[in-house]
Amino acid sequence: MDFLETCVVLLIAYIVLKYLGTLVTPKLDLVIGGYCHPKFKKVEELIRKKVISGKEKGGAFAVYHRGEVLIDMWAGYADEEAKRPWTRDTMTVTFSTTKSIAAITIAKMVESGWLDYSNLVSDYWPEFGCNGKENITVEMLLSHQAGLVWLNGEKTTLRDIRDYPAEFEKLLERATPEWQPGTKRGYHTVTYGYFVDTLARKADPKHRNISTIFKEEIQDPYDIDFYIGLPKELSYRMARGHFFTIAELLISSLSVPRKFILFAKMMFSPSSMLGKSIKTMDFSNTELNDPETRSIGLSSFIGCGSARSLGKLYSYIANGGTCKGKQLFPPNLNERLTKPVTSGYDECIAKENTYGLGFMFRDNPQVGNLVFGHPGLGGQVVYADPTNQISLAYVTNYNSIFGFWDDSRFLDLEKTFYECFREYQTS
């Protein structure tokens, strides 16, 4: 049996097993809750259809306009096996959307004068400035231009990061860039959190970790219900994650060639940039259902929160830095966050990409303007649409093979929302 035939057999087996599973699983009560502005009832109807069809098993969608909530809805189950429904207070792991929360935290540090985007990382962390990293600026690090996509074959663990910080720093200091910093761009899948979080702690006058800086400078003052690393006592609010292994991602993506190629690189091409970028930690996503693991703050992917919390935070950036008379950023700094830094071929993702100061940019097909924020593994999304003063977020605990603005659950909601929004503007 050749490779193609094997793939076809695996795909058929996957579909059959998935279908049989739906036959033996008892139907649960329909769960939909939250608020939807009367002008956006089509969105509520779409969510209802998704739950009935089984396309949405657990998730939340929130949209703010000029700081006001237009939609704050949730649906499905936080834990289907336990029959625990999704509620207003349910949180989930948001994966790489967390990178942008770290970027917002860094921007707050810039506003306070503790960091400068134009300065060298080594100005704050002198030991960093070796092995080809001497000329890396804060801006290069945030915009995925540093070339530090892996640790030259060395690995770490979440507990080592937490329990042995001195050894972890030395591991980072030994790293060498994969390209001359500033000449290319490539998604720092996991290492973004390694380097950005350490930089934040070095630059902070109190040497707080990224979780504490975010909590004290943003979360508490602005009432944002989001955590970089979740306190264990809040674990009762977490949705149980349904995560794919890399092998399951590969099998599930057989019907989507571009995704199959991506995941095949992860599995079978460890020397590729993408393969290297995920080979920096001994870790499985299923560990994120462990409260101890979730409590370790790492801005690469361990953020926990609701769609509401993400939408609320981004509503400040979508409205020039100020919402309802409360300022997150001054206009000049907020304007800088809305501008791309580098655009072109991404060495890791192997496609064109545009990065800002810790954000990804995307052409919004619904309105024809640029939006910025961050997608996350399995379908998570948050972005700001400054042109329309909108912030939008979607989160789910049922991960899919999609993770770069391309999950149909999100795309359907986005399309329907903007259809309603156009009518809303003219009414």
Molecular structure report:
This protein is an alpha+beta fold and 427 residues long. It has one domain: DD-peptidase/beta-lactamase superfamily (Beta-lactamase, 3-Layer(aba) Sandwich), CATH 3.40.710.10. It has helices spanning 3-24, 41-53, 97-111, 138-142, 158-163, 165-174, 191-203, 210-222, 246-252, 257-268, 273-277, 291-294, 307-318, 331-337, 408-426; strands at 32-36, 58-65, 68-79, 84-85, 92-93, 226-228, 303-305, 322-323, 326-327, 342-345, 352-355, 360-364, 369-376, 380-385, 390-396. Strands 1, 2, 3, 4, 12, 13, 14 and 15 form an eight-stranded antiparallel beta sheet that branches. The longest helix is centred in the first third of the chain and has 22 residues, at 3-24.
How many strand segments? 15
Number of domains: 1
Mean pLDDT: 93
Number of helices: 15
The main pleated sheet reads as: 8 strands, antiparallel
The share of residues in extended strands comes to 15-25%
Query: So, the CATH homologous superfamily?
Result: DD-peptidase/beta-lactamase superfamily
C-alpha termini separation? 62 Å
Helix content: 25-40%
Q: Rg, please?
A: 21 Å
Q: What is CATH's topology name?
A: Beta-lactamase
Structural class: alpha+beta
The low-confidence runs, each spanning 5 or more residues with pLDDT under 50, are none
